[in-house]
Design a protein that fits this description.
Order of helices and strands: EHEEHHEEEHHEEHEEHEEH
Radius of gyration: 17 Å
Strand order of the largest sheet: 4-2-1-10-11-12
CATH architecture: Alpha-Beta Barrel
Strand content: 15-25%
Structural class: alpha/beta
Helix content: 25-40%
Oligomer: single chain
Number of domains: 1
CATH class: Alpha Beta
């Protein structure tokens, strides 16, 4: 089985993170992962020190960690480009997969999109979009019909919020993903997916996600098939009845 992270950040680009890009991939390699999708924040905060109203002018900065890791890892440890996208005047975050640099450089200001525009434009480009940690404080749930799935386990989110995300995904029949949401060297690597086939390209990643040919990693090295472990679900069910 192969292990891949779907949600992680570098301190070079994401203001809320501190981990060096090379340290990030070393940590994942040491943890037995076979590759990562780098999802640095593409949000208003990312561009506070530059072109806040024209982030497309700062793409060299945004892509700097990705370029560093591609040169550092080569083909030995796949690093794919993703986004954690947040628009102006919201705290909702969306994980985007299938992004390539050429497409990104052809876009205007992604931060101006609303959710419907985001969904239409990303799907037209062949990308997939999932709402990240949808039950964190102040976040509102997107119209599920605009999404390809939901992050039901997030390593930076408490168990109750993760469980509520799981229930929401089950209610709407949406595919589920998991991510460690790594920001710092001290963060626990505990999320992602397992697959029976290797992932080295966007096309391979999208095929695995579309066909749901994976199992979720929801607590370190403990796998679960498209759900949190029964023990965790049972614990929350008991708490809800108290």
């Amino acid at each position: 089985m192969y292990k891949y992270e779907l949600h992680c950040h570098t301190g070079t680009v994401s203001r809320c993170a501190s981990i060096d890009p090379k340290a990030l991939v070393r940590r994942y390699a040491d943890a037995g992962y076979d590759g990562i999708v780098l999802t640095d924040h593409f949000s208003p905060m990312t561009f506070l020190g530059g072109h806040f109203f024209a982030p497309q002018k700062d793409l060299d900065f945004y892509l700097s960690s990705y370029h560093t890791l591609k040169a550092y890892c080569g083909s030995a440890f796949p690093v794919l480009l993703g986004l954690e996208l947040r628009h102006y005047a919201t705290v909702n975050d969306y994980l985007v997969y299938g992004v390539d640099e050429r497409w990104l450089r052809r876009q205007g200001n992604l931060l101006l999109w609303d959710e419907r525009t985001m969904s239409r434009n990303l799907h037209d480009a062949g990308c997939l979009v999932y709402q990240a940690h949808p039950y964190r404080p102040f976040i509102t749930r997107c119209d599920p019909t605009l999404l390809d799935g939901i992050e039901v386990f997030n390593g930076h989110t408490d168990e109750r919020a993760n469980y509520d995300a799981l229930l929401w995904a089950q209610k709407h029949g949406k595919p589920m993903i998991s991510g460690s949401d790594t920001h710092h060297e001290t963060d626990r690597i505990c999320g992602g997916i397992r697959t029976e086939t290797p992932i080295g390209t966007n096309e391979e990643l999208l095929d695995v996600l579309r066909t749901q040919s994976y199992t979720l990693i929801t607590d370190g090295d403990r796998p679960a098939t498209h759900a949190l472990t029964l023990e965790r679900i049972g614990t929350h069910a008991q708490n809800q009845t108290r």
